[in-house]
Amino acid sequence: MAAKTAITRADILPMAQYARERLDRRKALVAVKRNRRLPVGPDATFYFESYETMWQQIHEMLHIEKGGEEQIADELHAYNPLIPKGRELVATVMFEIDDPARRDRVLSALGGIEGHMTIQIGETTIAGRPEGDVERTNAAGKTSSVHFLHFDVTDEQVAAFREPGARVLVGIAHPNYGHLAVMPEAVRAELAKDFA
Predict the structure, then answer these.
(1) What local confidence, expressed as pLDDT, does residue 68 receive?
(2) CA separation for the pair 134, 137 (Å, rounded)
(3) Running DSSP on this structure, what letter comes out for residue 166?
(4) Which of 165, 166, 154, 147 is nearest to 195 (CA)?
(5) Where do the DSSP E strands lie in 82-157?
(6) Which of 68, 89, 97, 146 is deepest in the core (most CB within 10 A)?
(7) pLDDT above 70: residue 189
């Protein structure tokens, strides 16, 4: 069965129903997310998104903010672009630094980092395409702690990615943050389901 690539109004549960099911749904999603995350270096983590992760995110926003019908359209508009569309992987990349002073110092040195994120499948490197919603690096050169990246793939790259045991590397090659991570087989197998 092909992965769903968009959430519609019909997919949104009544909030009373979601509230009743919320804890169980959140627990179930923990298992899904386990094989959709990959730390790269000491501070960055790639969270690979899917229909399920974005469905949950939209419902959480509606549950917390209680904006009603008007909010639904806004959330669909915000989160649908982050669902893989069949020939891409989509990642939310977060720089998770607890200490505020260190976080400010690190992010201030990482301007433009959104242009330095890649996925390598075998010998082929795919550059991340930043989501065009807002500029993630400010005029002073400080980057955001959250980035949204699309990795567009060809049919040949999909075939290579789907091969059990395929060598996949996720990297950041910024001059002030150069790190690579080997994608574990369980993560590769889970993400292979994102391709149509």
Answers:
(1) 86
(2) 9
(3) -
(4) 154
(5) 88-95, 117-121, 124-127, 129-130, 146-152
(6) 89
(7) yes
- In this structure, which amino acid lies at residue 164? P
Distances (CA, A) of 180 to 64, 93, 116, 128: 36, 14, 12, 14
pLDDT digit string (tens) for 138-188?
878 899 999 999 999 999 999 999 999 999 999 999 999 999 999 999 999
Q: Which amino acid is at 177?
A: Y
Handedness of CA 67, 133, 40, 103 (dihedral sign): negative
| Residue 122 C-beta-side C-alpha neighbours within 13 Å | 12
Rounded to two decimals, the pTM is 0.92
Q: How far is CA 121 from the centre of its chain?
A: 18
Note whether 167 and 187 are within 8 A (CB). no
Query: Does the pLDDT at position 2 exceed 60?
Result: no
